[in-house]
């Protein structure tokens, strides 16, 4: 019976398709042969079609023929007949020089620019987030990757072939989502996902939720789409970035100006090309279409609905489509940039996700969203406002009745067929495993059965240990979903000592990140280092400073901690521990006339990471960072107690503020301001250094190594120590130099400054060092990404601590930037 219904449905579709013909075509300038973007095509049956930015179009011919009229501002219109037998239609329009001369002799202001100026001035009255105190709505969205032209061939005498075709031609990817959206002036935007379903996966693929596929507003200065930022066509400085032309005025109940926009500084600022429909009365956006041609063909359509009681146009539908392109421009999808032709090449971005060795040239990705239940007077309270997106616990467990009731778009037979197709694709391409590996590598591990191996423990090198080889990691959910066991062991071939650690983490509340931790380790630590428990980078392919460190101390530590995410934007951890310390070098600390070389510390440490502007996704299992937005703040306070066998009483405080300014021309400026302060009985092992990264050798090229990102490249190891200090790092990167599509070096100017002091230097015996009370400064530059992530760095030391010779003040090193 089911097979019979499939056949009937397809026969009906086939009859419908046979009644009309789809004819592709292109409109060009007859003299220059260049395409005419958004030329108007008026059909004899009342339809109006606009060409794409490459002049292309498709027109359906319902009968034997159709009369069409093609017009464009500044060109002579043409009327022609299109027959159903026409395979392809290319139409050339001739410039109308009379109209062009009229424009040229006009001394008035450009009417399109004047219109855009007025529209920008009225943004505060038309942007829903500016004019409304609060609003809410519900949205249904469908995200699909499919083959565009490889359609099913329907034959009445082919029952088995038809059913087989349904399975074979099912889409490669399909995800559905139902969400409630809220906005208030005080708390901003919030999305609550009430239903989510991803074909072929028992658990939802949260990567799709993390993408800015359908931006709500075109009124913002920046328009973000698939991790790529474009200049907004109605931004404050839009006239600097775009050219405009008024094409026509619609003859609807609420007429609109049709305004064509095109990037003015394409090589400097990323921009889109498209058309805005601006209400002639209030200059609000009624509809918008934006496109991009290059490595991919991108098309975004925004539709709005008018609400007369508020005199506002509110978004009703958004459709985004990506198809393979011919090269030139780039766009980021799934967090990775698609380079020239990567969509259709083997092992491109889509094939790496879905496991297919070859991607068809007619593959396309589309995301459609429809808004309903709009409330423009929302005055409620937003729950869990710290998370940009909140996924309900039942969202992934909705049954078919829920989806039938809430779907706001047609769910076709091909959509149903997806489930079977995707299962086979996932199994054949081992996609679940690929996603597991990808997620694990983000945290610096590689899953092997029930064990996630720690990649940072495999290989390291430093001057004291020489080659350091090891193995470590933690158990994953295959072992237990309630706790993990973790640990490591390493061996230094130069010092010939085994180091190790073992512990456990108990998951008290996964959604809030509440965990109870226990750990024991025996290892070495750099003298005067201050590591933030929160906010630190736990995985790095290369640690430049670690290679040249030569002043360590031995420790054995026992600690337990409680970590908790207070809000999605604030993460904290309280740690209680005991350290047993013994020296590697001949260092003594004098306290009350007693000499200490080995000592014990009892400590309590509170650490936090606060990201007030970053965007987070809260799921039933965990909290996921969607987008890091600066500034962010890291803080830590540690108290050592001279009780229960502890030898010293001291306090250490650290606070770090990080900020980054990104610009649409891809230049950026970074600031890091860090302060450290301590008081009490402070041994040198727990004082502070300013992250020096210059080996203590006389020749420049003997000091040639890899530069760090936030270290002082001209400051020698063990040269300065402080019990209180402040540091400022400034990095300004110019926009990349586009030598070719694959060679885009980046020039960075760097300025670093540090000031500090040390009260009781005489308490530290058998070691000599300076203080930073006069202020330390260095300036430098980097040329990054010259070859395979490698670049070059040069820095020069100046100011109060300038040394006698040039080679003493100068550093020359590699830089290395690798992205996983």
Describe the 3D structure.
It holds the Pfam family DUF5686. GO terms for molecular function: carboxypeptidase activity. With 820 residues, the protein is mainly beta. The chain has 3 domains: 2-108, Carboxypeptidase-like, regulatory domain (Immunoglobulin-like), CATH 2.60.40.1120; 117-437, no CATH class; 510-816, Porin (Beta Barrel). The protein contains 14 helices and 47 strands. The strands form 8 sheets. It has an 18-stranded antiparallel β-sheet that branches. Strands 13-14-15-16-17-18-21-8-9-10-22-35-36 form a 13-stranded mixed β-sheet. Strands 3-2-5-6 form a 4-stranded antiparallel β-sheet, with no helix packed on it. A hairpin with a 6-residue loop joins strand 5 and strand 6. It starts with a helix and ends with a strand. Mean pLDDT is 84; it is low at 1-18, 99-107, 149-172 and 328-360.
Short description:
With 820 residues, the chain is mainly beta.
